[in-house]
Amino acid sequence: LLVNYDIELVLVSPESLKMPEDVLDEVRSTGHRFYMTDDVREVIGNVDVLYMTRVQKERFSDLAAYDRVKDQYVIDEPLLSQAKERMILMHPLPRVSEISYTVDDDPRSAYFRQMRNGMFIRMALLASVLGRA
């Protein structure tokens, strides 16, 4: 859907988990701009939506490498204070430690609304697939 809008993607990840080149090629083919960094602090003040996921331990064959990066990607109150007042913080849930519980009540935190709305979307999709919509 985002291909229909004039957006710029900001991709934040450790080098070991950066977006695969074929996906980046697909983004390039749409004419959209993107920027990649390994430091969320560098971009949090400029983004309108931050879609956060956990650093997935299962993607690392070297657990020491996982331990080196997992705590670099945590949204907490000091970091969120640098974000736009109307930024939206999303997350697919469940979370591990990548979003502090202290930001749950921040109006920018949308993950619980996202979770609730996701249930209704899944219900509608199932009804449609089963021919009951």
Word description of this protein:
- With 133 residues, the protein is α/β, with parallel strands linked by helices.
- The chain has one domain: Aspartate/ornithine carbamoyltransferase (Rossmann fold).
- The protein has helices at residues 21-29, 63-69, 77-80, 111-129, and strands spanning 8-12, 33-37, 49-51, 88-90.
- It has four helices and four strands; from the N terminus they run E-H-E-E-H-H-E-H.
- The model has no long low-confidence stretch (mean pLDDT 94).
- Helix 1 (21-29) links the parallel strand 1 and strand 2.
- The strands form two sheets. It has a two-stranded parallel ribbon.
SSE order in H/E notation? EHEEHHEH
Widest β-sheet, arrangement of strands: 1-2
Instruction: Identify the overall geometry.
Output: globular
Structural category is: alpha/beta
Secondary-structure map:
Elements: E1 8-12, H1 21-29, E2 33-37, E3 49-51, H2 63-69, H3 77-80, E4 88-90, H4 111-129
Parallel strand pairs: 1-2, 3-4
What is the gist of this entry?
By secondary structure, this protein is α/β, with parallel strands linked by helices.
Any key phrases for this structure?
alpha/beta, two-stranded parallel sheet, 133 residues, single chain, Rossmann fold
